[in-house]
Amino acid sequence: MNRSTLLQRVREAGVVGEGGAGFPAHVKYDAQVETVIANGCECEPLLYTDQHIMLRHAGEIVAALKAVMAAMGASRGIVAIKHKYTDIAARMEAAVAGTGIDLAQLDNFYPAGDEHVLVHELLGRSIPPLGLPKDVGAVVANVGTLYSVSRAMNGQAVTHRVVTVTGEVARPSVLTVPVGTAAVECIDACGGPVVGDPVYLLGGPMMGRFVGDPEEMRRTVVTKTGGGLIVLPRGHYLHRMATLSVREMQKQAGAACIQCRYCTDLCPRHNIGHGFETHRVMRAFGGGVDTAMGVLQASMCSECGVCELFACPMRLSPRRINAMFKAKFRQEGLKYEGSREIVDAQSILNSFRKVPTTRLAIKLDLLKYMGIHPEDGGEFTPGSVCIPLHQHTGAPAVARVRPGDAVKSGDLIGEIPEGALGARVHASLTGTVTDVGSAVSIKGK
Ligand code: SF4
Ligand code: SF4
Fold first, then answer.
1. N or C, fewer C-beta in 10 Å, the chain?
2. Residue ranges of the chain with per-residue pLDDT less than 70
3. Are residues 147 and 211 in the same domain?
4. Does residue 255 have its Cβ closer than 6 Å to ligand 1?
Protein backbone atom coordinates (compact mmCIF):
# COMPACT_ATOMS: atom_id res chain seq x y z
CA MET A 1 0.00 0.00 0.00
CA ASN A 2 1.51 3.37 -0.96
CA ARG A 3 2.08 6.20 1.49
CA SER A 4 -0.86 8.43 0.58
CA THR A 5 -3.32 5.50 0.58
CA LEU A 6 -2.13 4.39 4.03
CA LEU A 7 -2.39 7.91 5.49
CA GLN A 8 -5.81 8.35 3.88
CA ARG A 9 -7.13 5.06 5.33
CA VAL A 10 -5.72 5.80 8.78
CA ARG A 11 -7.38 9.23 8.66
CA GLU A 12 -10.71 7.83 7.47
CA ALA A 13 -10.69 5.18 10.22
CA GLY A 14 -10.11 7.74 12.99
CA VAL A 15 -6.92 6.11 14.30
CA VAL A 16 -5.27 7.99 17.19
CA GLY A 17 -2.39 7.18 19.53
CA GLU A 18 -3.96 4.74 21.98
CA GLY A 19 -1.16 4.82 24.53
CA GLY A 20 -1.24 8.52 25.31
CA ALA A 21 -3.07 11.73 24.47
CA GLY A 22 -4.69 10.45 21.28
CA PHE A 23 -2.58 12.27 18.72
CA PRO A 24 -4.12 11.73 15.24
CA ALA A 25 -2.07 8.95 13.60
CA HIS A 26 -2.42 10.25 10.02
CA VAL A 27 -0.60 13.43 11.10
CA LYS A 28 2.03 11.65 13.20
CA TYR A 29 2.95 9.28 10.35
CA ASP A 30 3.17 12.09 7.78
CA ALA A 31 6.96 12.54 8.26
CA GLN A 32 10.27 10.93 7.35
CA VAL A 33 12.18 9.00 10.04
CA GLU A 34 14.90 6.34 10.20
CA THR A 35 13.30 4.07 12.79
CA VAL A 36 9.76 3.07 13.72
CA ILE A 37 9.32 1.48 17.15
CA ALA A 38 6.26 -0.60 18.04
CA ASN A 39 5.81 0.07 21.75
CA GLY A 40 4.62 -3.05 23.58
CA CYS A 41 6.30 -2.18 26.90
CA GLU A 42 3.16 -1.78 28.94
CA CYS A 43 4.77 -0.33 32.03
CA GLU A 44 1.91 0.69 34.33
CA PRO A 45 1.44 -1.98 37.02
CA LEU A 46 -1.81 -4.04 36.81
CA LEU A 47 -2.57 -3.32 33.14
CA TYR A 48 -2.74 -6.16 30.60
CA THR A 49 -4.33 -4.32 27.70
CA ASP A 50 -1.37 -4.19 25.30
CA GLN A 51 -0.31 -7.72 26.29
CA HIS A 52 -3.81 -8.95 25.44
CA ILE A 53 -3.64 -7.32 22.00
CA MET A 54 -0.11 -8.57 21.27
CA LEU A 55 -0.96 -12.17 22.18
CA ARG A 56 -3.85 -12.20 19.73
CA HIS A 57 -2.67 -9.93 16.93
CA ALA A 58 1.13 -10.17 16.59
CA GLY A 59 0.88 -10.70 12.82
CA GLU A 60 -1.39 -7.68 12.27
CA ILE A 61 0.85 -5.46 14.44
CA VAL A 62 3.95 -6.41 12.45
CA ALA A 63 2.10 -5.92 9.12
CA ALA A 64 1.04 -2.44 10.22
CA LEU A 65 4.56 -1.66 11.44
CA LYS A 66 5.92 -2.60 7.99
CA ALA A 67 3.34 -0.36 6.31
CA VAL A 68 4.14 2.59 8.61
CA MET A 69 7.89 2.06 8.04
CA ALA A 70 7.34 2.16 4.28
CA ALA A 71 5.17 5.28 4.54
CA MET A 72 7.76 7.07 6.68
CA GLY A 73 10.79 5.94 4.65
CA ALA A 74 12.21 4.13 7.69
CA SER A 75 15.03 1.64 7.21
CA ARG A 76 14.67 0.11 10.67
CA GLY A 77 11.73 -1.33 12.59
CA ILE A 78 11.76 -2.55 16.20
CA VAL A 79 9.07 -4.31 18.21
CA ALA A 80 9.81 -3.52 21.88
CA ILE A 81 8.36 -5.78 24.57
CA LYS A 82 9.48 -6.92 28.03
CA HIS A 83 11.61 -9.97 28.81
CA LYS A 84 8.89 -11.32 31.05
CA TYR A 85 6.40 -11.64 28.16
CA THR A 86 7.56 -15.11 27.13
CA ASP A 87 4.35 -16.15 25.26
CA ILE A 88 4.23 -12.83 23.43
CA ALA A 89 7.93 -13.08 22.55
CA ALA A 90 7.32 -16.44 20.84
CA ARG A 91 4.49 -14.98 18.77
CA MET A 92 6.37 -11.82 17.92
CA GLU A 93 9.49 -13.79 16.94
CA ALA A 94 7.36 -15.77 14.49
CA ALA A 95 5.69 -12.59 13.20
CA VAL A 96 8.95 -10.69 12.56
CA ALA A 97 10.82 -13.69 11.06
CA GLY A 98 12.14 -12.81 7.61
CA THR A 99 10.97 -9.17 7.78
CA GLY A 100 14.23 -7.57 8.96
CA ILE A 101 12.34 -6.11 11.93
CA ASP A 102 14.11 -6.50 15.29
CA LEU A 103 12.51 -7.78 18.47
CA ALA A 104 13.87 -5.99 21.57
CA GLN A 105 13.16 -7.27 25.08
CA LEU A 106 13.47 -4.85 27.98
CA ASP A 107 13.64 -5.40 31.73
CA ASN A 108 10.53 -4.94 33.84
CA PHE A 109 10.96 -1.36 35.00
CA TYR A 110 8.87 1.79 35.10
CA PRO A 111 8.44 3.78 32.85
CA ALA A 112 9.86 1.49 30.12
CA GLY A 113 7.02 2.55 27.78
CA ASP A 114 7.67 6.31 28.02
CA GLU A 115 8.70 7.47 24.52
CA HIS A 116 11.80 9.29 25.73
CA VAL A 117 12.92 6.38 27.90
CA LEU A 118 12.18 3.78 25.21
CA VAL A 119 14.10 5.66 22.51
CA HIS A 120 17.05 6.06 24.89
CA GLU A 121 16.99 2.34 25.74
CA LEU A 122 16.78 1.17 22.13
CA LEU A 123 18.75 3.74 20.18
CA GLY A 124 21.05 5.19 22.87
CA ARG A 125 19.88 8.69 21.92
CA SER A 126 18.23 11.26 24.17
CA ILE A 127 15.32 13.19 22.73
CA PRO A 128 15.85 16.84 23.76
CA PRO A 129 13.67 18.21 26.59
CA LEU A 130 10.17 19.03 25.31
CA GLY A 131 11.08 17.31 22.04
CA LEU A 132 9.61 14.42 20.07
CA PRO A 133 11.14 11.09 18.96
CA LYS A 134 11.35 12.44 15.41
CA ASP A 135 13.96 14.95 16.67
CA VAL A 136 16.31 11.94 16.81
CA GLY A 137 14.94 10.22 13.70
CA ALA A 138 12.37 7.94 15.31
CA VAL A 139 8.65 7.51 15.77
CA VAL A 140 7.04 5.41 18.51
CA ALA A 141 3.67 3.72 17.90
CA ASN A 142 1.75 1.90 20.60
CA VAL A 143 0.96 -1.72 19.64
CA GLY A 144 -2.78 -1.09 20.10
CA THR A 145 -2.55 1.81 17.67
CA LEU A 146 -0.75 -0.41 15.17
CA TYR A 147 -3.49 -3.02 15.48
CA SER A 148 -5.98 -0.23 14.66
CA VAL A 149 -3.78 0.75 11.68
CA SER A 150 -3.94 -2.86 10.43
CA ARG A 151 -7.76 -2.72 10.61
CA ALA A 152 -7.78 0.68 8.90
CA MET A 153 -5.73 -0.83 6.05
CA ASN A 154 -8.77 -3.11 5.49
CA GLY A 155 -11.21 -0.22 5.66
CA GLN A 156 -12.32 -0.80 9.29
CA ALA A 157 -12.84 2.19 11.57
CA VAL A 158 -11.86 2.42 15.24
CA THR A 159 -15.03 1.30 17.01
CA HIS A 160 -13.83 -0.81 19.95
CA ARG A 161 -11.32 -0.58 22.75
CA VAL A 162 -9.59 -3.25 24.86
CA VAL A 163 -9.79 -2.41 28.58
CA THR A 164 -8.26 -4.03 31.67
CA VAL A 165 -10.77 -4.01 34.54
CA THR A 166 -9.03 -4.95 37.77
CA GLY A 167 -8.46 -4.23 41.47
CA GLU A 168 -11.44 -4.65 43.80
CA VAL A 169 -13.80 -6.28 41.28
CA ALA A 170 -15.33 -9.74 41.48
CA ARG A 171 -13.77 -11.03 38.22
CA PRO A 172 -10.77 -8.98 37.05
CA SER A 173 -10.91 -9.22 33.24
CA VAL A 174 -9.72 -7.82 29.96
CA LEU A 175 -12.79 -6.78 27.96
CA THR A 176 -13.28 -5.61 24.40
CA VAL A 177 -16.03 -2.97 24.39
CA PRO A 178 -17.49 -0.43 21.98
CA VAL A 179 -16.03 3.06 22.36
CA GLY A 180 -18.52 5.05 24.45
CA THR A 181 -19.48 2.17 26.77
CA ALA A 182 -20.18 3.39 30.32
CA ALA A 183 -17.26 2.58 32.61
CA VAL A 184 -19.64 1.33 35.32
CA GLU A 185 -21.14 -1.17 32.86
CA CYS A 186 -17.65 -2.55 32.19
CA ILE A 187 -17.13 -2.96 35.92
CA ASP A 188 -20.55 -4.57 36.36
CA ALA A 189 -19.73 -6.96 33.49
CA CYS A 190 -16.80 -8.08 35.68
CA GLY A 191 -19.07 -8.82 38.65
CA GLY A 192 -19.01 -5.29 40.11
CA PRO A 193 -16.94 -3.77 42.93
CA VAL A 194 -16.25 -5.92 45.99
CA VAL A 195 -15.65 -3.01 48.37
CA GLY A 196 -18.41 -0.90 49.90
CA ASP A 197 -17.09 2.55 49.03
CA PRO A 198 -15.07 2.25 45.83
CA VAL A 199 -13.12 4.87 43.90
CA TYR A 200 -12.10 4.41 40.30
CA LEU A 201 -8.81 4.93 38.56
CA LEU A 202 -9.10 5.63 34.83
CA GLY A 203 -5.84 4.45 33.25
CA GLY A 204 -2.90 3.06 35.19
CA PRO A 205 -1.96 3.53 38.87
CA MET A 206 0.90 5.92 38.04
CA MET A 207 -0.60 8.24 35.44
CA GLY A 208 -4.32 7.53 35.66
CA ARG A 209 -7.03 9.89 36.90
CA PHE A 210 -9.21 9.17 39.94
CA VAL A 211 -12.98 9.45 39.90
CA GLY A 212 -14.40 9.34 43.39
CA ASP A 213 -17.80 10.92 42.80
CA PRO A 214 -20.41 8.24 41.88
CA GLU A 215 -22.33 10.75 39.71
CA GLU A 216 -19.22 11.62 37.68
CA MET A 217 -18.45 7.91 37.38
CA ARG A 218 -21.91 7.25 35.93
CA ARG A 219 -21.10 9.76 33.15
CA THR A 220 -17.63 8.33 32.45
CA VAL A 221 -17.24 6.30 29.27
CA VAL A 222 -14.51 4.27 27.60
CA THR A 223 -12.67 6.28 24.93
CA LYS A 224 -10.16 5.38 22.22
CA THR A 225 -7.31 6.22 24.61
CA GLY A 226 -8.51 4.58 27.85
CA GLY A 227 -7.04 1.12 28.48
CA GLY A 228 -7.55 0.67 32.24
CA LEU A 229 -10.30 0.75 34.87
CA ILE A 230 -9.01 0.02 38.37
CA VAL A 231 -11.31 -0.22 41.39
CA LEU A 232 -9.76 0.66 44.76
CA PRO A 233 -11.16 1.29 48.24
CA ARG A 234 -11.74 4.97 49.04
CA GLY A 235 -8.80 6.25 51.10
CA HIS A 236 -6.27 3.94 49.42
CA TYR A 237 -2.76 5.46 49.49
CA LEU A 238 -2.98 6.43 45.79
CA HIS A 239 -6.38 8.05 46.32
CA ARG A 240 -5.13 10.04 49.31
CA MET A 241 -2.13 11.30 47.31
CA ALA A 242 -4.32 12.25 44.35
CA THR A 243 -6.76 14.25 46.46
CA LEU A 244 -4.40 16.38 48.59
CA SER A 245 -5.31 20.05 48.17
CA VAL A 246 -2.82 22.58 46.76
CA ARG A 247 -2.70 24.20 50.19
CA GLU A 248 -1.79 20.87 51.84
CA MET A 249 0.84 20.15 49.17
CA GLN A 250 2.40 23.57 49.69
CA LYS A 251 2.41 23.28 53.48
CA GLN A 252 4.03 19.86 53.26
CA ALA A 253 6.61 20.99 50.70
CA GLY A 254 7.56 23.97 52.89
CA ALA A 255 7.69 21.99 56.12
CA ALA A 256 8.93 18.55 55.11
CA CYS A 257 11.00 18.76 51.91
CA ILE A 258 14.51 17.92 53.09
CA GLN A 259 16.08 18.71 49.68
CA CYS A 260 17.53 15.21 49.56
CA ARG A 261 17.04 15.37 45.75
CA TYR A 262 15.94 11.73 45.42
CA CYS A 263 13.07 13.05 43.29
CA THR A 264 15.62 14.45 40.85
CA ASP A 265 18.06 11.56 41.02
CA LEU A 266 15.39 8.98 40.17
CA CYS A 267 13.54 11.13 37.62
CA PRO A 268 13.58 9.20 34.31
CA ARG A 269 13.82 12.44 32.31
CA HIS A 270 16.74 13.71 34.42
CA ASN A 271 18.41 10.33 33.98
CA ILE A 272 18.37 10.46 30.18
CA GLY A 273 20.16 13.81 30.37
CA HIS A 274 17.45 16.46 30.65
CA GLY A 275 18.64 19.40 32.73
CA PHE A 276 15.56 19.17 34.92
CA GLU A 277 15.84 19.13 38.70
CA THR A 278 12.48 18.76 40.33
CA HIS A 279 13.79 19.27 43.88
CA ARG A 280 14.43 22.89 42.85
CA VAL A 281 10.78 23.26 41.83
CA MET A 282 9.84 21.87 45.25
CA ARG A 283 12.11 24.35 47.00
CA ALA A 284 10.56 27.25 45.11
CA PHE A 285 7.01 25.99 45.68
CA GLY A 286 7.56 25.34 49.38
CA GLY A 287 8.94 28.89 49.65
CA GLY A 288 5.88 30.38 47.97
CA VAL A 289 7.58 31.23 44.63
CA ASP A 290 5.51 30.20 41.65
CA THR A 291 6.56 32.06 38.52
CA ALA A 292 10.36 32.19 38.72
CA MET A 293 12.24 31.05 35.62
CA GLY A 294 13.54 28.08 37.60
CA VAL A 295 10.00 26.86 38.12
CA LEU A 296 9.44 26.93 34.34
CA GLN A 297 11.63 23.81 34.38
CA ALA A 298 8.46 22.02 35.46
CA SER A 299 7.43 22.17 31.79
CA MET A 300 9.87 19.30 31.17
CA CYS A 301 8.03 16.95 33.55
CA SER A 302 6.28 13.99 31.90
CA GLU A 303 4.11 13.46 35.01
CA CYS A 304 5.27 9.83 35.23
CA GLY A 305 4.97 9.94 39.03
CA VAL A 306 8.30 8.26 39.95
CA CYS A 307 9.35 11.21 42.14
CA GLU A 308 6.07 11.34 44.03
CA LEU A 309 5.02 7.72 44.34
CA PHE A 310 8.40 6.00 44.55
CA ALA A 311 11.36 8.29 45.24
CA CYS A 312 10.33 10.82 47.87
CA PRO A 313 11.02 9.57 51.42
CA MET A 314 8.68 12.25 52.80
CA ARG A 315 5.76 11.27 50.54
CA LEU A 316 5.50 14.74 49.05
CA SER A 317 3.88 15.60 45.72
CA PRO A 318 6.45 16.86 43.18
CA ARG A 319 4.57 15.36 40.22
CA ARG A 320 1.27 17.04 41.08
CA ILE A 321 3.06 20.31 41.77
CA ASN A 322 4.80 20.15 38.37
CA ALA A 323 1.46 19.35 36.71
CA MET A 324 -0.14 22.30 38.46
CA PHE A 325 2.63 24.63 37.26
CA LYS A 326 2.33 23.29 33.71
CA ALA A 327 -1.40 24.05 33.68
CA LYS A 328 -0.70 27.54 35.03
CA PHE A 329 1.99 28.18 32.38
CA ARG A 330 -0.42 27.07 29.62
CA GLN A 331 -3.07 29.42 30.96
CA GLU A 332 -0.65 32.35 31.17
CA GLY A 333 1.06 31.60 27.83
CA LEU A 334 4.44 31.12 29.56
CA LYS A 335 7.01 28.94 27.78
CA TYR A 336 10.25 27.36 28.95
CA GLU A 337 13.00 28.96 26.89
CA GLY A 338 16.06 27.74 28.78
CA SER A 339 18.62 25.15 27.77
CA ARG A 340 17.56 22.01 25.91
CA GLU A 341 21.02 20.51 25.99
CA ILE A 342 21.52 16.88 26.98
CA VAL A 343 23.74 16.43 30.04
CA ASP A 344 25.65 13.24 29.24
CA ALA A 345 26.94 12.76 32.78
CA GLN A 346 23.38 12.27 33.99
CA SER A 347 22.56 9.54 31.47
CA ILE A 348 25.64 7.53 32.52
CA LEU A 349 23.83 6.80 35.80
CA ASN A 350 20.57 5.84 34.12
CA SER A 351 21.03 2.07 34.14
CA PHE A 352 21.53 2.10 37.94
CA ARG A 353 18.44 4.14 38.63
CA LYS A 354 15.61 2.25 36.97
CA VAL A 355 12.57 1.54 39.09
CA PRO A 356 11.67 -2.20 39.20
CA THR A 357 7.91 -2.60 38.69
CA THR A 358 7.41 -5.03 41.60
CA ARG A 359 9.16 -2.70 44.05
CA LEU A 360 7.03 0.10 42.70
CA ALA A 361 3.86 -1.92 43.32
CA ILE A 362 4.93 -2.51 46.94
CA LYS A 363 5.42 1.21 47.43
CA LEU A 364 2.02 1.91 45.85
CA ASP A 365 0.30 -0.59 48.18
CA LEU A 366 -0.80 -2.60 45.12
CA LEU A 367 1.04 -5.85 45.79
CA LYS A 368 -2.18 -7.72 46.59
CA TYR A 369 -3.41 -7.03 43.05
CA MET A 370 -0.11 -7.79 41.29
CA GLY A 371 -0.70 -11.56 41.39
CA ILE A 372 -4.02 -11.19 39.59
CA HIS A 373 -3.88 -12.10 35.92
CA PRO A 374 -7.19 -10.80 34.56
CA GLU A 375 -9.20 -13.39 32.63
CA ASP A 376 -10.18 -12.89 29.00
CA GLY A 377 -13.66 -11.41 29.36
CA GLY A 378 -14.24 -11.44 25.60
CA GLU A 379 -16.53 -8.86 23.98
CA PHE A 380 -19.09 -6.97 26.01
CA THR A 381 -21.85 -5.12 24.14
CA PRO A 382 -23.92 -2.61 26.15
CA GLY A 383 -27.48 -1.52 25.30
CA SER A 384 -26.35 2.01 24.49
CA VAL A 385 -23.19 4.09 24.11
CA CYS A 386 -22.29 7.76 24.50
CA ILE A 387 -19.38 8.55 22.16
CA PRO A 388 -17.45 11.79 22.88
CA LEU A 389 -16.65 13.87 19.80
CA HIS A 390 -13.39 14.98 21.45
CA GLN A 391 -11.24 12.06 22.52
CA HIS A 392 -8.02 13.03 20.72
CA THR A 393 -5.48 15.85 20.47
CA GLY A 394 -6.80 18.77 18.41
CA ALA A 395 -10.26 20.10 17.67
CA PRO A 396 -13.44 18.19 18.55
CA ALA A 397 -15.05 16.36 15.63
CA VAL A 398 -18.16 17.96 14.13
CA ALA A 399 -21.28 15.79 14.43
CA ARG A 400 -22.52 14.32 11.15
CA VAL A 401 -25.69 12.75 12.57
CA ARG A 402 -28.92 13.98 14.18
CA PRO A 403 -31.25 12.48 16.77
CA GLY A 404 -33.43 9.85 15.13
CA ASP A 405 -30.83 8.80 12.52
CA ALA A 406 -30.25 5.08 12.11
CA VAL A 407 -26.53 4.15 12.20
CA LYS A 408 -24.50 1.02 11.77
CA SER A 409 -21.32 0.23 13.72
CA GLY A 410 -18.45 1.81 11.76
CA ASP A 411 -20.53 4.64 10.22
CA LEU A 412 -18.99 8.11 10.38
CA ILE A 413 -20.65 10.24 13.07
CA GLY A 414 -18.02 12.98 13.59
CA GLU A 415 -15.85 14.71 10.95
CA ILE A 416 -12.58 16.62 11.39
CA PRO A 417 -13.32 20.38 11.13
CA GLU A 418 -12.01 21.94 7.91
CA GLY A 419 -8.28 22.69 8.16
CA ALA A 420 -7.99 21.59 11.81
CA LEU A 421 -5.92 18.96 13.58
CA GLY A 422 -8.29 16.24 14.70
CA ALA A 423 -9.65 12.73 14.22
CA ARG A 424 -12.84 11.25 12.84
CA VAL A 425 -15.30 9.53 15.17
CA HIS A 426 -17.45 6.51 14.22
CA ALA A 427 -20.51 4.76 15.56
CA SER A 428 -19.52 1.82 17.75
CA LEU A 429 -22.99 0.28 17.95
CA THR A 430 -25.74 -0.37 15.41
CA GLY A 431 -28.92 1.45 16.42
CA THR A 432 -30.57 4.87 16.61
CA VAL A 433 -29.00 8.19 17.54
CA THR A 434 -30.82 9.52 20.62
CA ASP A 435 -28.83 12.66 21.44
CA VAL A 436 -26.13 14.86 19.90
CA GLY A 437 -24.08 17.38 21.86
CA SER A 438 -20.44 17.13 22.85
CA ALA A 439 -21.06 13.39 22.48
CA VAL A 440 -23.29 11.24 20.29
CA SER A 441 -25.60 8.84 22.15
CA ILE A 442 -26.76 5.70 20.36
CA LYS A 443 -29.34 3.19 21.57
CA GLY A 444 -28.62 -0.29 20.24
CA LYS A 445 -31.16 -2.26 18.21
S1 SF4 B 1 12.59 13.59 47.32
FE2 SF4 B 1 10.99 14.61 48.52
S3 SF4 B 1 12.05 15.42 50.29
FE4 SF4 B 1 13.63 14.90 48.80
S5 SF4 B 1 13.97 16.81 47.65
FE6 SF4 B 1 12.43 15.67 46.55
S7 SF4 B 1 10.46 16.41 47.29
FE8 SF4 B 1 12.03 17.06 48.77
S1 SF4 C 1 6.77 13.11 37.46
FE2 SF4 C 1 8.62 13.36 38.67
S3 SF4 C 1 9.93 11.68 38.04
FE4 SF4 C 1 8.39 11.89 36.43
S5 SF4 C 1 9.26 13.31 34.91
FE6 SF4 C 1 8.12 14.58 36.39
S7 SF4 C 1 9.63 15.18 37.89
FE8 SF4 C 1 10.52 13.45 36.79
1. C
2. 289-294
3. no
4. no
DSSP 393: S
- Give pLDDT tens digits for 24-72: 999 999 999 999 999 999 989 999 999 999 999 999 999 999 999 999 9
Boundary-marking domain end, from 333, 363, 393? 363
DSSP states along 55-89: HHHHHHHHHHHHHHHHHHT-SEEEEEEETT-HHHH
- Residue 126 is predicted with a pLDDT of 95
| CA geometry: angle 53, 57, 58, nearest 5 deg | 105
In this structure, are 35 and 117 located in the same domain?
Answer: yes
Q: How far is the CA of 311 from the centre of ligand 2 (A)?
A: 10
Protein residue with least CA distance to atom 2, ligand 1: 312
Same domain assignment for residues 287 and 185: no
Domain that holds residue 327: 249-363
Count the domains in the chain. Answer: 4
Q: How far is the CA of 307 from the centre of ligand 1 (A)?
A: 8
Residue that finishes a domain, picked among 121, 153, 185: 153
CA of 333 to the centre of ligand 1 (A): 28
Residue 243, domain member (yes or no): no
Ligand 1 pocket, residue 260 CB under 6 Å:
yes
* Packing angle, helices 318-332 and 246-256, rounded to 10: 120
Ligand 1 pocket test target in 277, 316, 317 with most atoms within 8 Å of CB? 316
Taking the CA of 299 as reference, the closest ligand is 2
What pLDDT score does 398 carry? 98
Distance of alpha carbon 316 from alpha carbon 279, whole angstroms = 11
Nearest ligand atom owner, CA of 282: 1
Gap between the Cα atoms of 110 and 306, Å rounded? 8
- Of all protein residues, whose CA lies closest to atom 8 belonging to ligand 1? 257
Q: Which ligand sits closest to the CA of 306? A: 2
242 and 178 Cβ atoms separated by less than 8 Å: no
